[in-house]
Write a structure and sequence with these properties.
By secondary structure, the protein is an alpha/beta fold. It is built from 11 helices and 12 strands. It is globular, with a radius of gyration of 19 Å.
Length: about 350
């Protein structure tokens, strides 16, 4: 497949060879995906020198909560985490105890070979030449395999999944991808657009199942919500905080199932709305550096950290005790889907 240059034409949609619709009688299924990565300044230019993984020493702060509810989070780790003892060692005992699963996560700018310029456009894997995508994917795949086991679950850093990436993941034997972020359009930043996607799983290839992030519009505007949110997101209206006004009015709010930037009240509303619409798969996601203050915009202080951990605890309590949901993993969900299609 030839490379697509976003500055010339809009990138093509990802393949959808089969939609997945689980029966409404199935209990809601919760997957936890952790973007397990190095620390870097989110407001600064990308740098190959930013490879510290010190926050991984504190991953137990979140893992303890998951253990309490029988959740096995999926730590999808990038090259700096998978190749530095400070990164992978804190997970090894958790992995040996079968309290988590592992997979791969790709930040191109810190993953060899370093044959591309470091800039915003090249931070999206899908924008790299196919050969370079293949080489970087091979590097992180091998690194995770050496520290744990051959990874079968993948998530692109910055959600940078493209047509070529899908084919390469299939070649490398991956079975699940978690890169699609529904209702998000990264094309103004030269990234992919998932504006037309919803949170329902689908097959990218006969083998590769896409389990998207859980991100959706809710509110009384119904089907008009996406259009209203898009209008409110225009630069002139952003200055007037139109998006926030629509959310406070209950008209439309785009909510992601994450403790990063989304209140517990919002995600509870999101989850209930999606369950009512028939959604049965939910992906809770966050970045591993958020377990230590000062590494992400979402956790700057000890107070932020306490709220972050409490959010996870409250959501698990809500999902499993109030909704009657059950925990699962990406590969377990894939097995469930495959068994229902036979």
């Amino acid at each position: 497949m030839g490379a697509t240059h976003r500055q010339d034409i809009e990138s093509p949609r990802l393949p959808r060879i089969d939609e997945v619709r689980l029966e409404p009688s199935l209990a809601p299924q919760l997957i936890v995906v952790v973007d397990t990565e190095e620390e870097f300044d989110w407001s600064a230019p990308f740098s190959r020198a930013s490879t510290s993984v010190s926050a991984m020493q504190h991953i137990g702060r979140a893992q303890t909560v998951f253990d309490r509810y029988g959740v096995k989070p999926s730590y999808l780790m990038d090259f700096p985490v998978a190749t530095q003892p400070d990164g992978y060692q804190p997970l090894q005992q958790i992995f040996r105890d079968n309290r988590c699963t592992v997979g791969a996560h790709l930040h191109p700018w810190v993953t060899p070979p370093h044959d591309e310029a470091v800039n915003g456009r090249n931070s999206y894997t899908c924008n790299l030449p196919t050969g370079l995508q293949r080489a970087k994917l091979a590097s992180v795949t091998q690194a995770v395999a050496e520290a744990f086991e051959p990874p079968r679950v993948f998530k692109a850093g910055r959600y940078g999944l493209g047509l070529e990436t899908v084919g390469l993941l299939d070649e490398l034997g991956y079975q699940v991808d978690n890169s699609v972020n529904p209702r998000m359009d990264f094309s103004p930043d030269t990234g992919p657009s998932f504006a037309a996607d919803d949170a329902q799983p689908f097959f990218l290839t006969p083998r590769l199942l896409e389990i998207p992030c859980t991100n959706e519009y809710v509110g009384w505007s119904g089907s008009l919500g996406a259009s209203l949110h898009k209008v409110a997101s225009r630069p002139a209206l952003l200055r007037l905080r139109a998006v926030g006004v629509l959310a406070r009015l209950g008209c439309v709010n785009r909510i992601m199932l994450s403790p990063e930037g989304n209140s517990f009240a919002e995600v509870r509303t999101l989850t209930r709305a999606l369950v009512a619409r028939g959604t049965r798969t939910f992906t809770l996601s966050f970045h591993s550096p958020s377990v230590e203050p000062g590494h992400t915009p979402y956790v700057r202080t000890e107070s932020d950290l306490a709220s972050f951990i409490d959010w996870i605890d409250r959501y698990c309590e809500f999902f499993f005790r109030e909704l009657g949901g059950v925990p699962t993993t990406p590969l377990e969900l894939r097995s469930l889907v495959m068994s229902r299609e036979e």
